[in-house]
Specification:
five-stranded mixed barrel; OB fold (Dihydrolipoamide Acetyltransferase, E2P); 9 strands; two-stranded antiparallel ribbon
């Protein structure tokens, strides 16, 4: 989970994004007017995950009126992947329909930490590798994640959030969340599933 501070100007955005990539990207040049995968992955804090690259891009440019100018500097392949993986901006005030598993979304609300396991249950499926064999195993969501309800201030609509344990916790303040939709199985004895947002990026709005 990474904090995103939206860019306030086109020049600040280009300086950060058109960065030359990591030290081993010898053929990538900084400040050449074209943003490559190596450069966007560096500033997004990922390596080859295009969904998260474009989620970061959208989160970082969301307050810029001329964000399209920045997106026009993406390389041809990045423009294509942007159209394939552009995150869905949703409003809890309007609807609780958030999308499908695997999609990335941006949503705003107040994260309320669920501290009691008796208030909330559910299981997620994770890969477990033993030697050369990988199997999928169901584990309680609390074993892997800090769990929140993201609440809309006006409608009181809520959606489930989670991020991996061990990092900074989200405070109960208005926050813009960027994440990936994942499935939660309500118990081990049923196939009934719903969705939660795995938080990848966040922006406090206070």
């Amino acid at each position: 989970m990474k904090k995103v501070k939206p860019y306030k100007s086109k020049s600040a955005a280009m300086k950060a994004i058109d960065n030359g990539g990591r030290f081993y990207n010898l053929l990538t040049k900084a400040n050449d007017g074209e943003v490559t995968e190596a450069e966007l992955s560096r500033v997004a804090g990922v390596f080859s995950d295009h969904k998260l690259m474009h989620l970061f891009l959208e989160m970082s440019l969301i307050e810029l009126p001329n964000a399209t100018d920045i997106k026009n500097t993406l390389s041809t392949s990045l423009k294509q992947s942007y159209h394939e993986h552009k995150p869905n901006v949703i409003s809890l005030h309007d609807s609780l329909t958030i999308g499908c598993a695997g999609q990335t979304v941006i949503v705003t609300g107040i994260p309320l930490l669920v501290e009691s396991k008796t208030e909330f249950s559910g299981f997620i499926t994770i890969p477990m590798t033993t030697g050369n064999v990988t199997t999928m195993m169901m584990v309680p969501i609390f074993d892997q994640y800090e769990v929140y309800e993201l609440k809309d201030e006006i409608s009181n609509n809520k959606v489930l959030l989670a991020h991996t344990r061990g990092g900074k916790k989200l405070g109960p303040v208005p926050t813009r969340i960027g994440g990936c939709l994942k499935e939660r199985q309500q118990n081990e004895d049923t196939d009934e599933k719903d969705l939660f947002i795995e938080v990848c990026y966040y922006t406090p709005l206070y």
